[in-house]
Every structure is written in C-alpha cells, then in structure tokens.
Amino acid sequence: MFENGFEDGRFKLRVEFYGGDARRLLLAVIRELYLSDYGEDYVYPFECAKEFWGIYMDPSEIAAGDFRPNPIKFLNRAVLDRLEKALRETKAPEEIVESINLERAEVHKLKKGLLALGKNFLLDERGYLIIFSKPSARELILKYLGMLDGD
C-alpha cells in the first residue's frame, strides 16, 4: 500500500487514485483479490489500511454493488468538456492526464454524473480518477463503485 493506491505482486496489479479519496473502495478490491484464498475472516488488508492509510473499516462495511451500464448515445463536445473538467480537478500528474483518452472511453450516465471507462482508467465526474495496470481490474472496481458515495 502507498498513499494513493496499492501494488500487488501476486496479481501483478497496481491501482492508484487521484482526486477524491478512494481508499475504502481499494480496500474492498484488495479483500476481494484474496477472498477465495483466505475466506470471509481475512483481516490483513484491514490491518494494513489502518496502519498505512490511517483508516479503519470493518469487513461488514464493504458493499458490493450492481453496476448497471447506461451508455450515452453520443459523445459530444459538452460531454467531453464535463469529463475534461473533472479530469483536471483530480489534480493527477500531467503524465497521467495526458495518457487518458476520453474520446475512446465508454461514457455512462449515472444518477450522480458521468462515468468514463477506459482500458486502464475510470473517471467519475464527482472527482475520482482511478488508474489500474490490468484491464481485468475494471470490473472489480465497478463492483465496489458505490462505496465512493460514502466518502
């Protein structure tokens, strides 16, 4: 774990966030990665989060959601402007911002704004940018996206 993300050598996965605090979501993802090996009583990620991130969360607070895609029909300039503004507001490093291609992203309309999904990123218009090293992590992150509502 590091200040704004984690890296797992076993799964060869690195996940970082910028903008809003997504540590609770990442903790749920870490737990999910090891759930099949260690079961429901696995507390190590929670102890690490307390030590490294200074947050306490009980496993019962993890809430998996059901992402319901609602793709927008047309990616017009107004939508791109909103997403570009949200991206700038995350204050991510310039090299990260430049690597994000919003025009090629899947864009969905959610109750609380727009969500852009790329091969290696998720941008929530509410101010969350999550970067991941493996495209397969996207589904796992989407599963716990609702946990950002509590931040």
Automatic annotation (TrEMBL):
Query: Which residues belong to any copy of the PH1570-like domain?
Result: 1-145
Question: What Pfam family is a match, any one?
Answer: Ph1570
Q: Which InterPro entries match?
A: PH1570-like_domain (IPR023110), PH1570-like_sf (IPR036807)
Q: Write down what this protein is called.
A: PH1570-like domain-containing protein
